[in-house]
Design a protein that fits this description.
Layout (H helix, E strand, L loop, with lengths): L12 H9 L7 E3 L14 E5 L4 E5 L24 H29 L1
Parallel strand pairs: 1-2
Antiparallel strand pairs: 2-3
């Protein structure tokens, strides 16, 4: 759900103050304001957005204006889906890779002869 046009976009006041006081070439700006929208003044700055555990580095470009800072700093880490089917596909891919490597090795040895 979007924010009311009457209210305008939400940009954290402390964050605007930090951006105004700093040069774009300086280091990253640490922030916990994940819900703050990216304003056009933020373009070219690097933000260190907190994801709950560490600070993720986010370099702001023009395409990001209007989005939230938290969108570019994921809070969860996807490992993989498990199960028998996943293991079978991984084993098949590994076997195909080994077979391709062996085939390349045999063609290299026959080419030398």
């Amino acid at each position: 759900m979007t924010r009311s046009l009457k209210k305008g976009p939400y940009v954290d006041a402390k964050l605007l103050k930090k951006v105004g006081a700093r040069k774009a070439s300086a280091g990253g700006i640490k922030t916990w304001a994940r819900s703050s929208q990216i304003a056009p003044e933020f373009v070219g700055y690097t933000f260190l957005v907190h994801n709950g555990k560490s600070f993720e580095e986010v370099f702001v470009t023009e395409d990001m204006v209007g989005h939230r800072l938290g969108e570019f700093s994921p809070t969860t880490k996807f490992i993989k889906h498990g199960g028998r089917m996943q293991k079978e596909t991984e084993m098949a891919a590994k076997a195909a890779e080994v077979a391709a490597a062996q085939a390349a090795k045999t063609t290299a040895t026959t080419a030398k002869k």
